[in-house]
Design a protein that fits this description.
There is one protein chain. With about 100 residues, the protein is mainly α. Helix content is about 100%, strand content about 0%. It has one helix and no strands. It is rod-shaped and about 145 Å long. The relative contact order is 0.04. Keywords: Coiled coil.
Length: about 100
């Protein structure tokens, strides 16, 4: 009688072992799937970070370009004033010569 019980017990343990192997395989598959998803998310985050850095750099570049534009406009206005003063001085000099 005990031999039969031992055999049944061994069979149950073997079945339990097989079930655990299947569960472990299934869990391993899920873990791999989750790792793949994590990799994809990390890649997407890196791409988004790079995109935001590019946008920030573009904003900084645009700001610098606007500052340069304002400086050029100011220099052009200064040159126009200098040119107008030179013309007035030339006109005054011409009047004095006459």
């Amino acid at each position: 009688m005990q031999a039969k019980q031992y055999k049944e017990r061994i069979l149950k343990l073997q079945d339990a072992l097989e079930m655990q192997k299947l569960k472990n395989t299934s869990q391993l598959g899920r873990i791999r799937t989750l790792e793949d998803q994590l990799d994809k998310v990390q890649i997407a985050l890196e791409e988004e970070r790079e995109e935001k850095e590019t946008i920030l750099k573009n904003r900084q570049t645009n700001r610098l370009l606007m500052e340069l534009r304002e400086e050029r406009v100011q220099r052009l206005q200064d040159l126009e004033e200098i040119y107008a003063k030179d013309k007035r001085l030339e006109a005054l000099a011409a009047e004095m010569v006459c």
